[in-house]
Amino acid sequence: MSRVHPTPWAQYNVESEKYSKQYNQLIFSNIHRQFIKFLPHPESKILDIGCGSGRDAYSLARRGYIVTAVDPSTKMLQQAKKYNDHKNINWLNERLPSLEKIKNQKFDFILLSAVWMHVPPHKRKKSINTMSQLLNDNGCIALTLRIALPDPTRAIYAVTLEELLKLAKENSLLPIYVSRKAKDSFKRSEITWIKVVLKKSQT
Fold this sequence. Notes:
Strands 1, 2, 3, 4, 5, 6, 7 and 8 form an 8-stranded mixed beta sheet that branches. α2 packs across α5. This protein has 7 helices and 8 strands, in the order αααβαβαββαβαβββ. By secondary structure, the chain is of the alpha/beta class. It is globular.
């Protein structure tokens, strides 16, 4: 019987080099091309939650953004700093739903790439609330939703678009973009993805 990891980052700590190399094979402008038009003006502050290999944080930093990149896996952060470091990136060991180390900051754009499925269902309401509090008025949250069966070995839970939109509405976050289901970038036939952009309404 395979071992069940109690936290989503346990396996990432063990196999950080493998996952880092895998994620770095993909290019930000290809996998997130739908998000690019929603990015704020250069020099804006962006929060990359679950930054993983640092691929997206590095691409955003090169575009002129001030990026705070957080991840619960210390080993993945080490890989990110090694291969994707940039003067515009602040790396932090942190995770949803609290994000305590940055709770007093504000951001213009928040990215969650292949992260939401790692948030346990009972922590999602607080997670959305935390992100809403961190977001400036008219700022955006861009998420990718993994549509597939759960994977307990990696602490991957089922997600639905309906649940996300309900939680978003409760926190003054309005959907301004919802994609069709798209094929998996690693060609896994059992997995599809939906991209969503939520905008914070003015208070």
